[in-house]
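@channel anyone free to eyeball this complex?
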Amino acid sequence: DAKTTQPNSMESNEEEPVHLPCNHSTISGTDYIHWYRQLPSQGPEYVIHGLTSNVNNRMASLAIAEDRKSSTLILHRATLRDAAVYYCILRDLNYGQNFVFGPGTRLSVLP
Amino acid sequence: EPEVTQTPSHQVTQMGQEVILRCVPISNHLYFYWYRQILGQKVEFLVSFYNNEISEKSEIFDDQFSVERPDGSNFTLKIRSTKLEDSAMYFCASIKGLAGGETQYFGPGTRLLVL
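replying in thread with the prediction:
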């Protein structure tokens, strides 16, 4: 699996937008970019994924750089419940077995 | 919304004992996984299972571990003789297909403590 790098931790104030970056400079043309998060004492939870175009869903937005070597997960208004570890994971379009988790970014949300 | 369920939520066992962790994947999913997460560390892949056989396993998944789908709904992870270092959260996951855009759904986990 291609590797991703993320900051170890980030902080945000409640109700403000949060931009979580991910670098994946060795991404291949068939890799999907997935974001998961893990709330304290819970299993990983799907957030969003994309291939080339920016994506929006009810949880977040995913902005993918034109060269696809980086992406940004955007939480439009952080809440206390968004405090979690966020993982950026690449999965090949044609073949994907397990998800390879890195250390992720620990997001703290301040009231 | 369909979800992956796991039982028990917590299990305490003595070193050397056998444990079985149970999972019910989402009903129309075809691929099943076990991951583990040692406290404070990252989520690690153990094994994937498809069509009643192991399709991939990690170095962690040694002879002490086995998986089974005993019926049409359950997926189990057995640890034959637990060691202290098996203490971790164990997550089951399932996915409908293997295309890169498919979403893997995780269960809430079983916290295993080996004394």
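from a first look: The mean pLDDT of chain B is 94.
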